User: Fold Methyltransferase-like protein from Nitrosopumilus piranensis.
Amino acid sequence: MGLKQCKMEIVELNCRFCNSSLKHIFADLGKTPLANSYLNSDNLEKPETFYPLKAYVCENCFLVQTDEFEKPQNIFEEYAYHSSFSKTWIHHIQEFVMNTIKRFKLDEKNHVIEIASNDGYMLQFFKNNGIPVLGIEPAKNIAKIAEEKGIPTISKFFGEQTASEVISVKQKADILIAFNVLPHVPNLLDFVKGLKKLLNDNGVLIIQFSAYLSQMIEKTEFDMIYHEHFSYFSLFTLQKIFSHCDLDIFDVEEFTIHGGSLRLFIKHKNNQTISLKTSVSKQLKLEEKFGIPKLITYENYQDHIINIKQNIWTFFKQIKNESKTIVGYGAPAKANTLLNYCGIGTDFLDYTVDLDPYKQGLFLPGTGIPIFSPEKISETNPDYVVILAWNLKDEIIEQLQFIRNWGGKFIVLIPEVEIIS
Assistant:
């Protein structure tokens, strides 16, 4: 591996929503490369840039956030995540689309726009039901895939300016969707103002995000923290953000997918045709009981992270002392946070595999662990398979049942080390 190059840490930070000074560290994960900066064989031995990875909590609005070391244009214009490769996620999306069509009585007269539409994984299901769609996706390599599927896609970063451009040539959105994009946005207010501008007067904005803060704290899902995730949200904080932009959250749903996700249904504040559901006040009460609006809730998170790191390190060392072989399944961003923070490299993990052909043949940033196709596992018969994409644990175990033929076992590291025979 090449030598580390560390970017200087910026000490003075202000909250990206309320501009309060950030004084309280939520998590300190040392120095890591960008989680999606996968290496190829040509740059494997070249120096990598490592950045401080710290998350802070604002004492005023309780937004948890990381610093912005790289501009989104340098991270997302060529992106390594394709939504279509998880059966679990696609099933979740199909169910969402059908429920949305039914609930809001959508037909060919309506217009659905998705922000960060990826490879068209969602919009294809609306289109198949005869509903006009438009995707807005900053990653040019992924937008091209969506276009090839017949999904009209604008390859631009979203904000107020892009919203104005879309409105000038297209109609506004009756249903505006933004799934798993809000944490990736450094300029929150510009993004939300863009959503407001693009949403029809009686339209519905639907936002879903993973790394839901209460679940992330409760299960110590610290690997969800990486530089490409600029913010980590609670309903408490999001209500403040959307209200500031004259938008109302009128319904909310919580899901276990991706380690804990929250789905918000949002309308214009002056839209009186949609009533507020009791789900919002119930979820806020749950967050209040959990302690979301109290600094003490965030103070001991680092201690839990350190404890998990020690347990992971001890476990890997013990397995290697027994001369057992360990490989990984998955090459998600969260794995790069975990492996770099815990010091797990090729000395412990021989390789990892991933279904996404885009990642196969590359190497994980920081650790240099090679990425192969899943067929590699049946060729090498490892003793243990570490499920790095733990949010897809059930899907992966079902896919790799055959490792039990030679006595292979699965390992999950989050929220705690667990061996699954």
Summary: The first strand starts at residue 4 and ends at 6. Confidence is low (pLDDT under 50) at residues 1-10. Residues 125 and 278 are 30 Å apart (CA to CA). Residues 301-321 form the longest helix (21 residues).
